[in-house]
Structure of Cation_ATPase_C domain-containing protein:
Amino acid sequence: MSPKTLEFHRTLFRTLVSQTILPLILVFTPSGLVLTLPLLGLYEGPLVNIVGVTVAFYPSLEPIVTVICIKEFRKLEFGKKDDRVLQPRHSCAVT
């Protein structure tokens, strides 16, 4: 495989790993704690509110992880804009 293809595969692998870890941290861990802490006789009061917040944040953080992990997306979003694209075209109309 070419070096560009290998780098692309590494980037996609890192992105997929990040997208796998994010729901584990934000959705499954808090939800699992809310379900298991009462079985162990422990108090889970404020944790119940955190579950709702983290589950609500998850869909908005998923694309941000993708933009941060993939270099081309990061350049497009945070990089310097190309001057050729930002310059308006001048037109002259004669009537």
Residues 3-82 form one domain. The chain is about 75% helix and 0% strand. The chain has one domain: 3-82. The chain has a mean pLDDT of 83.
